[in-house]
Structures are given as structure tokens and as C-alpha cells.
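URGENT: need a sanity check before tomorrow's submission.

F., can you look over the Type VII secretion-associated serine protease record below? I want to be sure the sequence and structure line up before it goes out.
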Amino acid sequence: MARVKRRRLVSTAAVALLLFAATSGVAHAAPPAGACRDAEPAHAQITAQPWAQQMLDPDAAWPYSRGGGVVVGVVDSGVDADHPQLRRPGKVLTGRDFVAGQNLPGNFDCDSHGTAVASIIAGDSLPGTGFHGMAPDARILPVRVTERDLGEQGQTLRISPQTIGDAIRYAVDQGARVLNLSLAGTADFPAIRDAVAYAVARDVVVVAAAGNAQQDTSTELPSYPADYPGVLGVGEIDIDGARAANSQIGPYVGIVAPGDKVLAATRVDGHAYVEGTSFATPFVAGTAALVRAAWPQLSAAEVIQRIMATASPARGGQGSDSYGAGLVNPYRAVTDGMDLSPAANVPNYQPAPVDQAALDRANWLDDVENKAGWLTLAVLGAIVLAALTVVVMRRGRRRGWEPGLAASPAAEPAVNEPPEQVFLIKKS
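C-alpha cells as predicted:
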């Protein structure tokens, strides 16, 4: 296996925002003439299933969401749209190149950094290849802001803050609903701050790397754009679930994801093991694409809240400055609160055929009951009338059919009332 180069962020507040993370030598793409001074060489394919995909198991969420209809903006070194896992028509959009200044597209890559990021977000599954992305039906909008992430002597290259700001605004205006920023720096640049605020105000889920400049755990370094309001900052863990030694610590770490020696695609038709928070970030951006497709009614802030609330426990405990809310969990982020049971197959209502014989019998019984009721009343009436007749006849015979006289009323007793009197009121 080729030697893995480790990319780190320069931790000087005076430097411009830096693109960082790692990749080994990679394949020969065919960028436009003059766009690349020295494109990375080819790299072999790797068929083994990577540990990050085994740990996160995004396939479990695919029955409910594959990220369809969601555009993810990748502000990076470009994306090689010719890679077999990215070449499905419509997966990688044309994008734009903000480096060469020649109105070039962004769907080529001289360095493979952006290609690796895009593949972790949306790389297709291929027969015989263990690697694939988190949201294979999401679309990638490549926005190229750098040619390479390392210079001729291995130094980290600086990127113009204004270029990054312009690239962010372009991605938002082109319809990106998720924005992957696998870049970080210790300085707060207004051009980037304002562009991130522009994205957040337009309901874009902004996911940014926490940075690779941590030397020890005794200090907390600033990190931008991860520390801007509304941004989900991503830290890096290794295969054992431990924070990578250089993954930065701070309140801007909202969540963690695999980033240490994770597998990713490289230019043309290769793969490489890469490391850094740059490559932890697309695992979270891909999860955001899954959530946005499954829950389109959620705002960007609610998507971030959902991803953090459904994270798996990490070593640092919930709310740690090293691990944030925990390890991103694509399945729970998509399915929590979702009714996963299949819809019941209720048959159509089929009325039973009419039983005419039973209906006729029921009508006959109703008629009989009605007649019996009236007959009963008539009989009872006749009995009462006969009884009254007998009583009258007997009393008539006893009196000789003479009319009876009513008893005279008793005389009222005389009332003796005193005569009317007039009372005089004497004068005093």
C-alpha cells in the first residue's frame, strides 16, 4: 500500500483560511489544458470494505432515504466527474472553478481532495468494491477554490478568503441544500463569515471541519468556519472510536465521524486511505443529505438538531468539546420518529349479496308483530269495557235503576263578626 501522507492545519492566526487533510498519490485525470500545474499520479483501486462504512452502516438507512433530490455543495479542489463511482449521469453537476479565473467548470480535480470528499458523500456502490458513499442519490455541486492542498515543499497552501466566500455564495445560489466545507483556519475573515451567514439565512445545512491543528488537550484553538453561528462542526475519530490526536477541541465540535485512515475515491479510477477532519466532515454532510431527503419539511437548523440528537454515544460523553454530541448515526438520523411498519393491505369493501328469502321472512315477521300488537290492544280494550259494563249493571239493579242523588253539602257555620268601628286618634 502506498504511503499515506498526513495533512495538518497551520495553527497561526495570521495565516489565511487553509485547506487541509490527507490523501496519497492518486490517478491521472484529464483537467482542462493549463488548469493543473502538476496533477496527482494514478492510484490503484481498493476493493476491501472500509471500517468507516462498517461502523456507520449507511446502507441501513437506504430503504427510507438515499438522498435523492438533495444538492450538496462541495467547496474544495474540484471533483473528478469521471470516477466510476461518481460518473452516473447527473450525479456531479458542472459547478464552477474559482481558481483559474477562466470561467471553467468545477467538475475536474488536480489533487483528489475534493473527489475524496464527494465520494464519501455520494459515491455509488459498484460490484466488487467495498467503498461507497453515504447518500448515493444525492447530487454534488463542485466548486473549485484550490488546485492543491500542499505546495511543492509539503507546506499547506493558503486560499484567498474572498475566493472561499464567493464560492459559498455561488453554491447557495445554485441550489445547494447542504454545504460541505472541508477546510478550516484559526482566523476569522469577514468575507467567509458573511458568506456562511448568507447560506444559513437561506436554509442551507452548513457542515465544516473542526481542524487538524490540535497538538495537545490543554488548549482550545479557534476554528473557522466551524465556529460560525448555524454551522455544524465535525471532529475526527479513529477505528477504536477515540478522538484523533490532532482533531481540534472546542465548543464548535458539534459531532464526530470517522476520519483516521478512511477509504475514499481518487481521480479517475482509484482509491486511497486518507485522514483528517476534512474527511470526517463528508460523512456528516452525507447524513444531512439523507435527512433532508427523508424529512423535507425540516429547516436547516432542525436537520442539524436531529443529527446531533440521534448521535451514538462517544467517549467524551454528551456535549464534550472533543466529541460534541457523539458519533453520527445515519440510520437513527433518518428513521427516528418515522413509522417503519409497512402499510396494511386493507381489502376493498365488497357488500354481501342480498338474501331475498331472509329479507321476505323478516318483513313477514315485522307484519305479524305489528298485527299482534294491535290485536292485543283491542282485546285489552274489550276486557276493560266488559268489566265497566258489569259494574254499572250491578249498581243499577241495587237502586232499582233510580238515579242516584248527590249528598247535600254541609251548611256553613255562621260567623259572628264585630261591627265596623272607627278609631279616633287623639291629639297629644
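My own read: The mean pLDDT is 85. Residues 220 and 250 are 5 Å apart (CA to CA). If you see anything odd, call me.
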